[in-house]
Amino acid sequence: MRSNSAEVTNMEDLTLVGFVVMVLRQWRLMLVFMLAIIMLTAGVVYLKPAKYNFTTVYSVASYETAEGIKRGLETPDEVIAKISNVFLEQTRRSLLSKESIEQLPFETMVTNPRNTLLLSITSKSSEKNQEMIERFQENLIDLIQQDQQAIVESLTNSLQYQFEAYSQALEAARDANTERASELEATYIEAVTQLERRIASINEGNSTQVAVRSLEPVGLSKQLLLAIGFFLAFLLAPLAAIFSLFVKKVIAEYRLG
Question: Which is it for the CA torsion 119, 122, 128, 129, positive or negative?
Fold first, then answer.
């Protein structure tokens, strides 16, 4: 059987088959390399905590139009812009100060499910941070509601002012005994009815759930991580053997001068 140094020295004369045979003779190295990767992957899988999505759903303040169509006092995109640029940072700074930490152990995303007036506020983290996430999302919802409440009050006051004005005009038209007054009375009744309906339809905005944990972990599953580890072990082991032969060749050439 040839020595390793002889094998390395004669690598230039090898055929493809001979080269493959040389690589296969490094089976001990490949086996150790494969076992190392598999053990490393298993360790990562074992130590990696499962992460879940914790989601709060918020319904944007809305009202019904005269046609009975539900509209937001602000569009979901406008509310998301305020959250992303103002409220998230305010809530983050407040929680960091209260918890005396430098960084939050989770990230938060805000999305709008298509064709809805709902906001989905989602934080991804392990279960050990659930209590902190709940406080964070509750504080964030409080800021959103305070901002929306100001808009609701402004709209309500405006509609109430119009309602009172039309109600007074309606009373005046009823007191008048003219044909024109009868026409105005019908118009004012319709306006008062629509305003009444619009005021009653105002939804101040509310959260239907707070920091509800997803049923299943998110991200790569442990089974998939193990499968990736086995794949990399079988893929990289021959490369490790080839690299070992290359290093031996370089050392042999260097010794020969």
Answer: negative
- Which residues have CB under 8 Å from 147's CB, separation 6+? 82, 87
- Whole-model pTM: value is 0.67
Vertex 174: Cα angle to 171 and 175 (nearest 5): 90
Q: What is the pLDDT of residues 26-39, one digit of tens each?
A: 888 888 888 888 88
Which residues, in sequence order, are bridge partners of residue 155?
none
Q: Which residues contact 216 (CB under 8 A, 6 or more apart)?
A: 52
* 116-82-162 Cα angle (round to 5): 70
d(C-alpha 57, C-alpha 137), whole Å: 10
pLDDT digits (tens, 9 = 90+) for 134-149: 999 999 999 999 999 9
Running DSSP on this structure, what letter comes out for residue 10? T
